[in-house]
Structure formats: C-alpha cells, structure tokens
Amino acid sequence: MVKVMKIDIYAKPDTTKPSGYDVWMEENSRKTDRLVFDKTKDNMKKTENYDVRFKLHNKDNANLRFATPTDKALWAKPVEDLSEPCPDQACFMNGVFYLDSVDRDELSVINTDPAAQLFKFAINLVPEGTVEDENTTYVWFDPIGENRNGGLPG
Fold first, then answer.
1. pLDDT at position 154, please?
2. Domains recognised in the chain with CATH numbers
3. 38 falls in which pLDDT band (50, 70, 90)?
4. Per-residue DSSP letters for 49-82?
5. Residue by residue, what is the 3-state secondary structure of 4-22?
6. What pLDDT, on a 0 to 100 scale, did the predictor assign at position 106?
7. Residue 153 has pLDDT above 50, yes or no
8. pTM for the whole structure
9. Rounded to whole angstroms, how far apart are CA atoms 125 and 72?
10. I want to staple 111 with a disulfide (CB 3.0 to 4.6 A). Which of 28, 50, 95, 135 is the partner?
11. From residue 35, how far is each of 53, 70, 113, 144 by CA, in Å?
C-alpha cells in the first residue's frame, strides 16, 4: 500500500531571479516550501511508502519541463539543520527519497520514510527543446523534506 501525495509545481518567467524563473510548489492548493511525511498522522503502516507525484504547471509561457536523465531530474541529501545548503550537484538518497519516473511535466518520487530526518532536494527543470548534456544549465527548485516517522518497506 502507498499513500499518493499530489504536489503542484508552478513556474513563470521572472527576470529578477538568477534563473530567469520564479518556481514554487503547492500542496492542496497551499503554497509551501516544505513537504512533511508523517506516517502516524497519515494513518499509514510503517511498511507503507509515499508516492509523491509532482505536476509541473507553466504560467505566462514559461515553457519549462522536468529534466529527463534520471541522474539529473532529482537530487536529494540528508541535512542536520536547515542552514545547510541545498543540493547543487548530483546527490541521491537511494532507498529513502528517490526517483520512480519522469516525463515532460510529471515526476514521481518514492519516499520510504525510514527514519526521522530532515533533507533537502532539488528538482531540475529545463526549457522545452533543450538537448541535455554535460553543459546544460538547470533551473532548479530546492524545497525541504521532513520525514517524521520510521519504518522499513516490507
């Protein structure tokens, strides 16, 4: 059994931002910069996982898409506190918070929530039509994750 979380990511052009875009996420139509995973509150068994489904919405002709190489779409790392920097290069939390699938405007992540832990993650976006290679500059969105419970998948 899994709990599906639907998260909307919005992007719009913004020349005041270093990337040229303003990017934000909403959970249940409420803007947030943190996703909290709490199996007790969500009435889940410790062996159940979260299936986090990110949906990209371009506003004002932003014309972005998720990066599609699996090693570029999502980076994640555990942190001790929120003052630590967000991922700005490839790093992964395999077996904890990891990519399940990605296409142009949908990205699916599995979170096993095995222990109480703060983490930061980056979702990489590129303009539509970009051919990704080692020189690609990504528009990255870097929210916070918080695992509150524990449990290992069965």
1. 45
2. 2-147 (2.60.40.420)
3. very high
4. EEEEEEEEEE-TT--EEE--SHHHHEEEEEESST
5. EEEEEEEEEECCCCCCCEE
6. 98
7. no
8. 0.93
9. 9
10. 50
11. 12, 21, 12, 6
